[in-house]
Specification:
By secondary structure, this protein is of the alpha/beta class. 38% of the residues lie in helices and 20% in strands. The strands form four sheets. Strands 6-10-7-11 form a four-stranded mixed β-sheet, with helices on both faces. The chain binds cytidine-5'-triphosphate and magnesium ion (MG).
Length: 226
């Protein structure tokens, strides 16, 4: 399940940032290729804006992305876009939610995540914080947080479908809006496992990320050549 229905305000391109190119391809095509090439991925459900559907379909065709089985209409918040994907999914397998704006997800990480979620029911990708982390409400340092316990969380996040459905139903009942799916699952007190990912799984959010993205793309291409 890939939410792609945002507007990319912080990128400031004046249109959905996912259409911006990294190398030769739009950002979201790089993201979809990771799953297209993963033999374990059976289908991709994409949440899009209605007015962008045709342009997206044309790109899927051009870049031979064949695993998108459904395109659903996204909502005003990311969580609503993911809800739309979840409603469209009728299976009972392990579902992954992954931001279309994270084109550098590695197949080995997806694999490790799915292995974990298949066993435990809920697992998310993150990396350990490298910097010293402090809690500073109102700009005044309260404490230095133990870095060993801190993770910077990314997507994908993977769940057995019934776990995510239950969490999503509860969030709707409580009108709770989270910034990731894990928050919803945490609220129903289902344990969520951390899977260590890679620092290059950055979200293309601002212009700087795009510059970093161009460098990362070159590195990935070099890796593929050797
Ligand atoms: N997304 C979505 N529906 C929304 C908002 C976001 O499907 N209503 C998607 C985005 O397209 C993106 C992912 O969720 O792939 C992560 O969101 P984010 O990086 O915040 O993208 P935008 O919301 O588009 O950017 P911004 O917050 O800067 O406007
Ligand atoms: Mg956003």
């Amino acid at each position: 399940m890939i939410p792609a229905a945002g507007s990319g305000k912080r990128m400031g391109a004046g249109f959905n940032k996912l259409f911006l190119k990294l190398g030769e391809k739009p950002i979201f095509i790089h993201t979809l290729e990771a799953f297209q090439q993963d033999p374990n991925c059976r289908e991709i459900i994409l949440a899009v804006k209605n007015e962008e559907k045709h342009e997206i379909e044309a790109y899927l065709h051009q870049f031979e992305i064949t695993k998108v089985t459904q395109m659903v209409e996204g909502g005003s918040e990311r969580q609503y876009s993911v809800d739309a994907c979840l409603s469209a999914y009728k299976g009972d397998g392990v579902v992954l939610v992954h931001d279309a704006a994270r084109p550098f997800i590695r197949r080995a990480v997806i694999h490790a995540l799915v292995q974990e979620a298949a066993v435990s029911g809920a697992a998310i990708v993150g990396v350990k914080a490298k910097d010293t982390m402090k809690l500073a409400p109102k700009g005044i340092v309260q404490e230095t947080v133990n870095r060993d316990h801190l993770w910077i969380v990314q997507t994908p996040q993977a769940f057995r479908a019934e776990v995510l459905r239950k969490a999503s139903t509860q969030a709707k009942a409580d009108q709770f809006l989270g910034t990731d799916e894990s928050m919803l699952v945490e609220r129903i007190e289902y344990p969520v496992k951390m899977v260590e990912g890679t620092y290059d799984n950055v979200k293309m959010t601002t212009q700087e990320d795009l510059a970093i993205g161009e460098i990362l793309l070159k590195r990935v291409q070099q890796e593929e050549e050797v």
